[in-house]
Amino acid sequence: MRAVATPHGTVGYTDHGAGPVLLFVHGFLLDKSMWLPQIVHFVPLGYRVLCVDLLGFGDSEPVPGTIPLTAHAVALTAVLDAVGAETATVTGYSIGGQVALDFAGSHPDRLTALVLSGTSAGVDSPVVRAERLALADRLESEGVDEYAEEFLPHLLGARTIRDRPSVVEHALTMMAAADPEGAAAVLRGRAERGDYTAVARALTVPSLVVVGAEDSFDRGELAAELAGLVPGSRLAVVADSGHTPSLERPLSFNAELEEFLESVSGAARPGPLRVR
Question: Which of 64, 196, 202, 208 has an alpha carbon 20 to 30 Å from 97's alpha carbon atom?
């Protein structure tokens, strides 16, 4: 693990491989270890894979109060600077997708391509915003453990929970490690985020939108709406997956991402062929 200082606290990240940079941003209550299946897949293909802990999670510094969503995008820039990477293909999942959109709006010159998984561009309704703020208070006062059990059926699909105990264990381990104060601060910042609809409409880089077919948050609507906003984007629906296809169905997710990356480069994968 490496770390870099940012204006809102220290951010942890991992750096594996060499080649075109793929930068991955995790979701709420998780950490950078959710991207292990992508590290294992893409490093041998000749990519440099960076996985960043959002402020408040993993090896990043827990910050009290409120962490603005923009602070996470600033942290991505700090990580790229620290490793000497000018540009990257950024993959953001859930809240990480909104961080990726913020980064795309503020640093378009550093974006090679964009992958948005299980996320949306618009602001919360007043009801959802109030629910996020109430949950932030609850996490701060009660801790994460009880909510993690409630959140699990939304984080993972029913088939994953039934058939893939190792994925369930990994998800619960990440959530159990989350700092309640940091999680609350991130949630407040998310509730107060801006509207990224205009950013999505103005994107000029190649973009891929990914969603699990059983994502209870998406309800078969949000990913299609987001793909409709982003000019020229591709929509990939991962079968037998809930909200987290990169972890639940990594073979399918990686295949979609690999095909997308090859279409972006217009050439074969940058490194040695992978033996399937």
Answer: 64
